Amino acid sequence: MTAIKRRVFVLGGLATAGALALPTNARAATPYPFKLAVASGEPDSSSVVLWTRLAPTPLNADGQGGMPNADVAVEWQVSTTDTFATLTASGTVTARNADAHSVHVVAGGLAADADYFYRFRAQGHISAVGRTRTAPVTGTFGRTLKMAFASCAHYESGYFTAYRRIADDRPDLILHLGDYLYEDATTTGSVREHVGAEIVSLADYRRRYAQYKSDPDLQAAHAVAPWLVVPDDHEVENNYANMVRADSSPALTTAQWTARRTAAYRAYYENMPLRPAAAPTGNSIPLYRRVRWGQLATFHMLDTRQFRDDQACGDGWKVCAAADTASRTLTGAAQEAWLLDGLAQHYGTWDILGQQVFFARQYDASGAASMDAWDGYRASRSRIQQGWRDRSVRNPLVLTGDVHAAWANDLKADYANPNSATIGTELVCTSIASGGNGSATTTIPNAATNPHLKFYSNRRGYVLTTITPAEVTADFRSIPVVTEHGAAVSTLRSFVIQDGVPGLELLDGLAGGRSAPPSRRGRLRLG
Ligand code: FE
Ligand code: CA
Question: Residues 176-189: what's their mean pLDDT?
Fold first, then answer.
């Protein structure tokens, strides 16, 4: 039995149950359009975004996925059970040809801090079922929040096993901190290959998203929980800074580069479970935003590419006096003011900055640092750190991607003085696949010159956090191999951050690590 016939058979069973009655003659006419599966995102206390994109043949070079040049009606359903016996919310939305047949449904009227299932139907076919949930209402903590975060999934470098293991961990919420896809051309002999040349046109970006979204492990991670996403550089082009490119290949005129950025942002919006408010206008996309999780947490999702000054001293690792220039900004002035204003509100116990590039200072022995990271924008970092101190932010927690390695860092009032106050904490997820298998080393690079850097791993994986009013536990989940599919995951190291006590405590595992109740865990203050 083919996959399509099996799905039609399943659909028949569901239709009999009554929730999705469907004329028989509509079923067989078109190929299965849900090959890119489903996603949800941006939960608040009464609504969540439901996403799908119709593409029966995802790898078509025109980026249209085999859909006709016409708009298509898509039905959607939300239920408290995966049998959809009763519907909490439902409706019909138009998948527009102009949007590559993607839809962004804001499903409203939902209960706070509640779990839901959702699915779609179009052209006589029914989608996979996704699981999603809402946030607690203002002033309430809600249930313990299990949140995973990840970044950097270079398709050619390895299988997306880490996405599968995120799904297995059944988090309530997933943050993706960028490099969801990469723009580079096919590299013959890779673990698996990108289709096509370096992506430049809207059709190119749409097809590349379709290739990535065809991956069953990525689909599983989308189906398990709502996502909060922010892009980094590779969703457009490596290390671009606002309108400045980092390389000149392929050669593009200014107008062509503008058109490319426009296409990249448009395809990003089309393919992510973002609210309609995040839809791009031409060459800009309004992505920095706050997502409040009741009294428990506030997610300040940042955009560190679209508004930044160009990397100082020509990018790379440099000893660079220009990086200290007071006017330099990574966020742009408007986003910086917006962030500091939001931090001043004390909305929730944990102020979590979901962002892209390495935040803590990291100088090598010669004094060189990464000009693409916050080290290349030191005044910008100082204004934000001092800003949260001035506003008495109780629990600033910075989450980071980009560097294809796991790190855990104390953030310092004065990085030059190890005895200065620890004023916050940074957790850096490694990559899903970028960099391939990596190595087993946990020797912290540049530890001698940066004693606030407390943990490093060069394996692939993600970070699983458990967030309560009293503490955040961070489990560094590690995958030993991605060049073969299906490796097991293990927790390489766990840390705790206590409410009101910035900085890391190591869970030493002697009392059972994360499986032990907090009162029986062995802890070590790293200081
Ligand atoms: Fe990356
Ligand atoms: Ca990056």
Answer: 97
